[in-house]
Write a structure and sequence with these properties.
alpha/beta; Carbamate kinase; two-stranded antiparallel sheet; 9 helices; 11 strands; 40% helix; globular
């Protein structure tokens, strides 16, 4: 049985799919995260996924090397499609029903993003993977996740990370960093914590969508949060 959230949007970074290799695709972390997604979906949670492309290219970094920003972002959006198809393959191998929707027309690879169709898929128990970001340059996949969460009326946006929540400063660099189990939208924006960009925070604030930041690498966290209703990570609300 599902916990407090009926419908959620999970934001995965491309780096998580690369694992320790830090570039490309690594089967173990992909299978691990897909196993958890399939488990919560089979328990009745309606789940959409937005995946980044940073395991292949980051638009902002590519511009530092002289690449045109629009083209760099377009390459990043295409990278998210590769990741979405990889997730689809792993989820279908587990018997989970999946649909990939792309913000960039890509017939034969993914459905076009259509809000009403995405909602119907979710209502029918299908996992929907939203690829190609927003379809426009200059927007991060965090913003794409907040946008899709708003469009499908998600109860929560889950930001999967490599740390167990939000701190007042980088816990890797500062041993005295303070863990923040709960924080307000405006406080998170003002503190510039780097967890998500300002546009993503603002969209969630405007639409009343709480953000839960948690460590996806800790096995069982997704089920604890979505099935058992445990308090995991940090919540921005």
């Amino acid at each position: 049985m599902a916990g407090i959230y009926r419908r959620v949007l999970l934001k995965l970074s491309g780096e998580i799919l690369a694992g320790d290799e830090r570039f490309g695709l690594n089967g173990k972390p992909i299978n691990d995260v897909c196993g958890e997604i399939a488990e919560v979906a089979s328990a009745g949670v309606e789940i959409g996924v937005v995946v980044g492309g940073g395991n292949f290219i980051r638009g902002a970094r590519a511009t530092d090397r002289g690449m045109d920003r629009v083209r760099a972002d377009q390459m990043g959006m295409l990278a998210t499609v590769i990741n979405a198809v990889a997730l689809q393959d792993a989820l279908e191998a587990l018997g989970a029903p999946v649909r990939v929707q792309s913000a960039i027309a890509m017939g034969g690879v993914a459905e076009p993003f259509v809000r009403s169709r995405a909602v119907k898929h979710l209502e029918r128990g299908r996992i929907v993977i939203f690829a190609a970001g927003t379809g426009s340059p200059f927007f991060s996949t965090d913003t794409a996740a907040a946008l899709r969460a708003s469009e499908v009326n998600a109860d929560c946006l889950l930001k999967a990370t490599k740390v167990n929540g939000i701190y007042d400063k980088d816990p890797v660099k500062f041993p005295d960093a303070k863990f923040l189990p709960r924080i307000g939208y405006r406080e998170a924006l003002n503190m510039d914590l780097g967890v998500m960009d300002a546009a993503a925070f603002s969209l969630c604030m405007e639409n009343g969508i709480p953000i839960v930041v948690f460590d996806v690498r800790q096995r069982g966290n997704l089920a604890k949060l979505l099935i058992e209703g445990e308090s995991i990570g940090s919540t921005v609300s």
